[in-house]
Amino acid sequence: MSEYDVVVIGGGPGGYVAAIRAAQNGLKVACIEGRGTLGGTCLNVGCIPSKALLHASETFDAASHTHAKVGVKVGAVELDLPAMMAYKDETVKGLTRGIEGLFKKNKIDYLKGWGSFKDKTTVEVKGEDGSASTVTAKNIIIATGSEPASIPGVTIDEKRVVSSTGAIALPEVPKHLVVIGGGVIGLELGSVWARLGAKITVVEFLDRIVPGVDNEVAKEFDKILRKQGMTIKTGTKVTKVEPSGDGLKVSIEAAKGGDAEVLEADYVLVSVGRKAYTANLGLDKAGVTVTDRGLVKTDDHWRTNVSGIYAIGDVTAGPMLAHKAEEEGVAVADTIAGKVGHVNYNAIPGVIYTAPEVAWVGKTEEELKSASADYKAGKFPFMANAKAKVGLHPEGFIKILSDAKTDRVLGVHIVGPDAGNLIAEAVLAMEFDASAEDIAMTCHAHPTLSETMKEAALAVAGKAIHF
User: What's the whole-model pTM score?
Assistant: First the structure.
């Protein structure tokens, strides 16, 4: 039996980052991962492979429709789907090997197998070959992430009815892909296959897509996606998916009830959210408390109800985001080492990596109105930005919300080109309690997309220059 200062269960973004920081703090560390490769859902079947396909499909689309507009003739453009999938897989493979290299560099023991508690200080590791070993630790971090959720009447088989895992590995371009759920994952993957030639129908139960995103941004995003050719049915629910010859019949009806409609599709993507992966961890043997939704209960320092056991990432409350898990991984490793661990949950950005992208941080207008907050708003469109026009990406805008009295930035919301990178300036501004005026008075290089952030900040005071 091996004994460690810290054992991390789960090698995803939260887990492997926690392990590295704990090792940097001079602790003896082991990380348990049963997938066979490090990186968790994000690196293996989530964030990274989906972004590889987004990039590849955008390249295909640009070659098909945009290059000629700027004087680049490429002739007939042909899709090589196997080569595109190989590019995605090689990208993933290289990055997972990179994490293994970081483990070796930091002298972290990588234990391949599925971990489960035997008691509050002991974890059993079961390998795929049936072998079993046991480790003990002074501190244990639960970082097992999440898995796709489903809905009644729909069975995921990862062949015709797929989760995000199956949707990044389809053997062909669908003729008609029905996406159940108008959230981040469904719209990202739907946009991949739409650019490659599939008909896409998004079925969303709520009366709008991307719930939680600022409503003005969501409306603009919806308009852009429809313009790109997606069919979006909001206020609609899927009641049943059943085989029909070589394809599927998808039964839908109004969320509030009404006449049924049947959609013919060859693939269905179930994208209705994710649930914490806490089953089969033996949490009851350790005495760890979970919620009705299977989330691990923690305090403000990521401690569970059992001394020495911590939890981070998707198994805890809050947004299921890789970067949120990473921040918590660093914070909990520092806490264990007797240092100060900190995460500012008011400054965690969200990004949708479609084209254009959507990104946000802080409060939405709806949240501010609900709280009866006194605020100001400034908005600037990308169509008035020189770099966006040069790049043929003039759609969307940046909106900045600030306190009416102090001008402190309360939230920033973007739909437009490279929003995922642009939001970093807003996150930094909020981390330092900056005002909209601080952003407005900061010199931004010209011509850049970032000038749109400056102009939106100027617009808060009604002083935008170029619009």
Answer: 0.97
